[in-house]
Structures are given as C-alpha cells and as structure tokens.
Design brief:
Blueprint lengths: L2 H15 L4 H18 L10 H13 L9 H6 L1
Helix pairs in contact: 1-2
C-alpha cells in the first residue's frame, strides 16, 4: 500500500472513531502530506523504517522547526 492510500485510510478511520475538529483533521492531513513529500510518493507503508522518520526529523530541524513545532512527528506515532 502506498503512503497516499495509507494516509487516506488512516484519516478516514481515525476521525470516524475519534471526535476531533476539522482543524485537527486538516493539520494531520498537512503533516502527513509533508512526510509523503519527504519520503517520496512511491514509497510503501511496508518500506517505512525508523531511519526514514529520523531523517525526516533531522530535515525538520534543519528547516528551523522549533522542537515544540515538530508536531508532524506526532502524527506518525498515531
């Protein structure tokens, strides 16, 4: 399964069982879009590893994200 499909299924399932605002859904979608862009659109869920998440965290830090602003990493834990 490609990241895009996984993201769509996650958002559909997570937000159907958890009461969250549309603002939260939009933020999750945006964060996951950023990760998909970084990881590459052809990457599959099976191919993900801790190292790609660590690389993304380093990328965000290099982009001057403050530690408190690195919420996109939260989305990958959910």
């Amino acid at each position: 399964m490609k990241l895009k499909q996984g993201k769509a299924e996650f958002l559909s399932g997570y937000f159907s069982t958890n009461r969250r605002t549309e603002k939260t859904r939009t933020a999750y979608n945006s964060d996951l879009d950023q990760f998909e862009t970084f990881a590459g659109p052809t990457r599959t869920l099976k191919s993900l590893s801790g190292s790609i998440v660590e690389e993304w965290a380093a990328h965000l830090k290099n982009q001057n994200y403050a530690p408190a602003s690195m919420e996109p990493l939260r989305d990958l834990r959910v």
